[in-house]
Each structure stands twice: as C-alpha cells, then as structure tokens.
Amino acid sequence: MVTALNLRAQTWHIAAGIADTRRSTSLRGGQLAHIGDTIRTRLNRRRMLVRGGRTA
Q1: Residues above pLDDT 90, as percent of the chain
Q2: Are strands 54-55 and 50-51 parallel, antiparallel or unpaired?
Q3: Average pLDDT of 13-31?
Q4: Any residues with CB less than 8 A from the CB of 23 and at least 6 apart, and which?
Q5: DSSP structure string for 2-55
Q6: If you compute the radius of gyration of the chain from its CA atoms, what whole number of angstroms results?
Q7: What is the pTM of this model?
Q8: 28-54 tens-digit pLDDT
Q9: How many CB atoms lie within 10 A of CB 33?
Q10: Would you kindly state where each structural domain of the chain is located, as residue ranges?
C-alpha cells in the first residue's frame, strides 16, 4: 500500500514537472528517486556518515 502511494505521488510530481527524471538513483525496494523528489526516512541515524553516496 505504501509503495503504491509513493509511486502515485512520484508520478504526479513527474507530470507536474517537479521531479526531473533525467537523473535518478535506486532506493531500497526497487524504487527510483529523481531530482526534486521528497525523501522521508523511517529511522534517523544521526551518527551515520555518508561519503560519495555510500555509508562510511
């Protein structure tokens, strides 16, 4: 259900020109994130470091 809602919202953002599909990255669960997408996390890990797109 959550995945379906996320895809519906993303489709709307793409159609409205808010999300730019020319560049994307894979997310957990097989979804793609595009420039302009809003990302909500389920768990904040304040001490997690990210370098070059990968966790340190």
Answers
A1: 30
A2: antiparallel
A3: 89
A4: 34, 35
A5: HHHHHHHHHHHHHHTT-SEEEEEEE-TTS-EEEET-----SS--TT--EETTEE
A6: 13
A7: 0.61
A8: 778 889 998 888 777 777 777 777 666
A9: 15
A10: 2-55
End-to-end CA distance of the chain: 32
Q: How confident is the model at residue 11 (pLDDT cuts 50, 70, 90)?
A: very high
And the tokens for 33? 């994130």
| Tokens representing residue 44 in the block | 């904040």
- pLDDT at residue 45, rounded to an integer: 73
> DSSP secondary-structure letter at 56?
-
Q: What single-letter amino acid sits at 51? A: R
Contacts (Cβ under 8 Å, ≥6 apart) of 27: 33
